[in-house]
Write a structure and sequence with these properties.
Helix content: 25-40%
Strand content: 15-25%
Shape: globular
Radius of gyration: 23 Å
Oligomer: single chain
Structural class: alpha+beta
Number of helices: 16
Largest sheet: 11 strands, mixed
Number of strands: 18
């Protein structure tokens, strides 16, 4: 896998720099320790992110890039969600197995007491416990193929927005065999949300310190966050720092869960109450604004088809300290890095201004990213509003700073697209500590002067924001539906 990772990097970059490297040469170079610093950084990250072998009562850390906290001296500063893996020793209630495994893991730690059954029940109710099923049920197996099953069933709604099962935006490539097998294996681990009887020998994954998004979720209590609803779709104004999808350790505090809790109940076209809305697309956790959800799978399919037919219109507002050039902007994003479910490499998306030399390389290794900046005007931001954002390296509160608000029309919808493209243009978004270090750096600049060293240093300083950034999914238009988010946070008293 590691050789493949370096091979993909070298092969993809060859389309930019005008040279080619065979996979055999790449492996040979790696064995001889003759590689660029960028390749070594990516190799180190790939090694550090290899999954640990499951053992009884083992403790590991899993990556989660949707939300992050500062991590000292870690490559790319990913968040590490603490996870305990174990195997049940005997038949019995799930809460007893959870309490026993966690208590065994904490033996010898004077700061922790034995885990109680009440604590175990709380973890189960929150969605921090997963169990591996030895075999899929007949209904689960048929659900992999059947597109006409009961779209309002509770099991379908329960797992429709779990990573690997949800609708993925701009997923144009065909699903290969390896990915299909990974999806089937993912299905075998099921999140358990209620008291259950567990059999001996069942693999468990437990997150004893689940990540909480209580404050952001509580903002959904405001009825104004519901922007639109009909018999098929629900559009909400997602608060910043609320993840769109459920975290592995927290099923409820996410956009669908908080929407159902504070704005529900919702009913589908037949009048039946749904479990909770299903996601149609993603918005970064640190970004607020319009999020579209469907009341059933048919709504997801309709939204997907509208997107494939380019019948969606998305408008973003972005704040920078540099004036963003008006007009259409085209970049090429390294596709292997932006593919969902891939581990290794930096969490930021790397872009290039130079188009690939062939359609085959463009299709396999690059994603075309297009956006249009239709307006860029200077604005002022209340200093009191900025005081709550100390992580913004572009803002020195002791000196006056000119801010610019850009209105952006998104033509394609890639992961971190607006953030990555504005950074590549030398205009990073305020508060975006993941892309501010990469301002003005692109992959096609590696061979210019100290391009490799500059990119390596920038990636090493990149960290996922822990506070809202100056970006909002301001409006979305599809079909006859038009939804516009409320005033963004940087407008302050102007709300």
């Amino acid at each position: 896998m590691l050789a493949t990772w370096i091979c993909l990097l070298s092969w993809s970059l060859s389309s930019v720099h005008g040279f080619s490297i065979s996979s055999r040469n790449v492996v040979s170079s790696r064995q001889q320790s003759v590689m660029t610093r960028s390749s070594r950084v990516l190799l180190h990250s790939a090694i550090s992110n290899q999954s640990a072998i499951d053992t009884v009562g083992s403790a590991t850390a899993t990556d989660d890039l949707d939300q992050d906290e500062n991590q000292p001296n870690t490559a790319f500063r990913r968040i590490r969600t603490y996870c305990v893996k174990g195997v049940t020793a005997r038949d019995g209630p799930l809460n007893e197995a959870v309490a026993q495994l966690l208590s065994q893991q904490q033996q010898g730690d004077d700061e922790h007491e034995a885990v109680s059954l009440e604590q175990a029940n709380h973890l189960i109710e929150l969605g921090a416990v997963w169990a591996r099923m030895e075999a899929l049920t007949q209904d689960e197996l048929l659900a992999l193929y059947d597109e006409d099953d009961d779209v309002s069933s509770s099991s379908r709604a329960l797992y429709a927005d779990v990573q690997g099962l949800n609708y993925e935006e701009n997923e144009e490539e065909e699903q290969d065999l390896e990915r299909y097998l990974e999806q089937v294996e993912q299905l075998r681990f099921r999140r358990v949300l209620s008291p259950s009887w567990i059999q001996a020998g069942t693999d468990l994954r437990i997150y004893p310190e689940p990540r909480r998004f209580t404050d952001a979720c509580g903002q959904m209590q405001n009825s104004e966050t519901l922007l639109y609803e009909d018999t098929t779709f629900v559009v909400v104004d997602k608060p910043p720092m609320l993840p769109t999808q459920p975290d592995a350790s927290n099923y409820h505090e996410c956009c669908p869960g908080c929407t159902q809790t504070y704005l529900g109940p919702f009913f589908d076209i037949t009048g039946r109450e749904i479990v909770r809305p299903l996601l149609c697309h993603r918005v970064d956790a640190c970004v607020g604004g319009c999020v579209v959800m469907a009341k059933d799978r048919n709504g997801q399919k309709v939204f997907s088809q509208l997107q494939q037919d380019r019948q969606l219109r998305k408008v973003y507002l972005a704040v920078t300290t540099q004036r963003v050039p008006l007009g259409m902007h085209l970049h090429w994003m390294w596709a292997p890095q932006s593919a969902r479910g891939k581990s290794g490499g930096p969490p930021c998306q790397l872009t290039s201004l130079t188009p690939p030399e062939s359609r085959r390389k463009a299709r396999e290794f690059w994603n075309r990213c297009i956006l249009e900046v239709v307006k860029c005007e200077p604005i002022s931001i209340d200093p009191q509003v900025l005081q709550s954002y100390p992580q913004d390296s572009t803002n020195n509160h002791n000196e006056p700073v000119q801010y610019y608000q850009s209105t952006i029309r998104l033509v394609t919808g890639r992961k971190h697209q607006v953030r990555a493209q504005l950074s590549a243009l030398g205009c990073p978004i305020i508060g975006d500590t993941l892309y501010q270090p990469l301002a003005g750096l692109t992959l096609d600049g590696l061979e210019v002067n100290n391009g490799e060293e500059d990119l390596d240093d920038a990636v090493a300083r990149a960290r996922v924001p822990t506070q809202p950034i100056g970006l909002q999914a301001h409006a979305i238009l599809f079909g006859n539906i038009r939804a516009k988010a409320r005033a963004p946070w940087w407008w302050g008293a102007k709300k």
